[in-house]
Amino acid sequence: MLLTILLLIIIGGLSAIIGSIVGIGGGIIIVPTLVYLGVDHSILHGITTQIAIGTSSVILIVTGLSSSLGYLKTKQVDIKNGSIFLFGLLPGSLIGSFLSQYLTLKSFNLYFGIFMIFVAILLMVRHKIKPFKIFNKPKYEKTYIDAEGKTYHYSVPPLVAFVATLLIGILTGLFGIGGGALMTPLMLIVFRFPPHVAVGTSMMMIFFSSVMSSIGHIIQGHVAWDYSIVLIISSYIGAKIGVKVNHSIKSDTVVMLLRTVMLLIGAYLIIKSII
């Protein structure tokens, strides 16, 4: 029992710290870890693929809320444009949560493995992809000046935002990842957000999308509440640490470590789905 609690503290804390620094929430770490410990090795009893996904969604509510409050204090959250994203993200998250019931262990390993590798590659090339100017509409444009005095001009056309976030929302509910792994690159590349604002706004998106996907998973009984309590406490503390670390560490260092781990996990899951 003590070993289980210790494992959950480490999982919740580390995933929240890394997720808050990079703006991905941490679900992309929590879900495969719970599946590995619960389904593959029976260290965490009662865990199924769906329960791992549902439990992650509940945990990300706390991570998203804690991080959002921290980033709000430092004015790194674009509430207005973030609200526009919610029109697609919320219904998509609910739809995805119900679609997750059709995932078998093998299909989860295959699809999630492919998804992990895709996100890892996206993180790898995100600085090399120039922001799309086609979506930068003057009538929606906002200006942001960061702490170093650099000026950014970015905009969020509502229709483009709705379609993109609806798809991301479905993946959010389907995999229990919070959506930050895709929302942050989307804001940086498509909508040309300032990096720090993209991370802060992404955490707000993770909070709301996780609330919606959690509703779907709770209705279906896909949450391990006993494990959730420990994960929630450790995630809350980890998220606060992550926000503070965000100001003192190069996020590129964390991203490099994260994408390496994601590539390895993604390859492992794909191989498992085949053999």
TrEMBL record:
One of its GO terms (cellular component) is plasma membrane. Its main location: membrane. It is a multi-pass membrane protein. This is Probable membrane transporter protein. It holds the Pfam family TauE. Keywords: Cell membrane, Membrane, Transmembrane, Transmembrane helix. It comes from the Bacteria. The chain crosses the membrane at residues 7-31, 51-72, 84-102, 108-125, 159-191, 197-216, 223-241, 253-271. It is found in: Cell membrane; Membrane. The keyword Transmembrane helix applies. Belongs to the 4-toluene sulfonate uptake permease (TSUP) (TC 2.A.102) family. It comes from Staphylococcus warneri.
